[in-house]
Amino acid sequence: MAQKNLRKLPAGKVSIFKIRNRRGYAAVCLSNLTEGRTPVEAFDRMAKAVKRAGFLLSGNVPKAR
Predict the structure, then answer these.
(1) How far apart are CA 13 and CA 56, in angstroms?
(2) Does the predicted TM-score (pTM) go above 0.70?
(3) Contact predicate 64/15, CB 8 Å
(4) Cβ 38 vs Cβ 16: under 8 Å
(5) Residue 14 burial (CB < 10 Å; 0-12/13-18/19+)?
(6) Whole-angstrom distance, CA of residue 34 vs CA of residue 4
(7) How far does CA 3 lie from the centroid of its chain?
(8) Cα angle vertex 60, ends 36, 28, to 5°?
(9) What is the widest separation between alpha-carbon atoms in the chain?
(10) Which residues pair with 8 in a beta bridge?
């Protein structure tokens, strides 16, 4: 399978927030929405989602709002 050319995307483009009336956190970036029990888990799932679109998240997990 051919290697995908991944473009870098700063971690600051990802918004992480606490989900109201539910347990866990959500991350939003490039029209993708992911959920996780912790901000780190939501960010990791977002990294996988944007990788499918040809981007590579770089940097640390942003602070949850």
Answers:
(1) 12
(2) yes
(3) no
(4) no
(5) buried
(6) 22
(7) 22
(8) 45
(9) 43
(10) 56
